[in-house]
Design a protein that fits this description.
With 193 residues, the protein is mainly β. 13% of the residues lie in helices and 62% in strands. It has 1 helix and 8 strands; from the N terminus they run αββββββββ.
């Protein structure tokens, strides 16, 4: 049910942006910041739910994207959440993802965007002395802002949520919840080729 809600929410946010993008793309001849781009993000995240409540932690993300037109891009990324948790339960997670982004330019140099996609992650979870590895996939969705410095360089600020779940049946004493949503806030830079 939760995944259906998230999928519906993502579509409700992205579909109007894509329709607007198509209408504007047909009415303008301007080529604006299109092409392949590389990006890097640094940020903080909080893990919520289960036994993974903790203070802010650092994350690192690398991005390869393709700006199809002024309004739509496709991104692939690698993200490393590092280790988080407490003395009772700890996790170490990283993964690869893909996302579709719908962008609404507010000026020649500033745009807002929404994105949605999937993350395939590898995690190592330790709870009460037991350690288990798990591979899984999850939905990712978020919003952000892009400030274009020039034709090649842009600066981003972004919020994303990752709906993580792990297998409680692996543990002799299972954690309270199988759900560990991760909220992240990042800043980054991108170079367009």
């Amino acid at each position: 049910m939760k995944k259906l809600f998230i999928t519906g929410l993502s579509m409700a946010v992205l579909c109007p942006a894509f329709a607007l993008a198509q209408d504007r793309a047909q009415s303008t001849q301007q080529e604006h910041h299109n092409g392949v781009y590389l990006g890097a993000n640094y940020g903080l995240y909080k893990a919520r739910g289960g036994n993974f409540k903790d203070n802010d932690r650092e994350l690192y993300e690398g991005i390869v994207g393709w700006q199809l037109n002024q309004y739509v891009s496709i991104e692939a990324n690698y993200i490393d959440f590092g280790k988080y948790g407490n003395d009772v339960a700890r996790a170490d997670i990283d993964g690869y993802g893909i996302a579709l982004t719908g962008k609404i330019p507010l000026s020649d140099t500033f745009a807002l965007y929404a994105k949605g996609g999937r993350l395939w992650w590898d995690g190592s979870v330790a709870s009460l002395g037991e350690r288990h590895d798990q591979n899984d996939e999850t939905w990712v969705y978020g919003v952000g802002a892009l400030l274009t410095v020039n034709d090649w360089v842009g600066i981003t600020a972004e919020y994303k949520r990752y709906d993580m779940e792990y297998d409680r049946s692996m543990y002799l004493v299972p954690p309270n919840s199988s759900s560990t949503d991760i909220d992240s806030i990042t800043v980054g830079a991108r170079i367009t080729f």
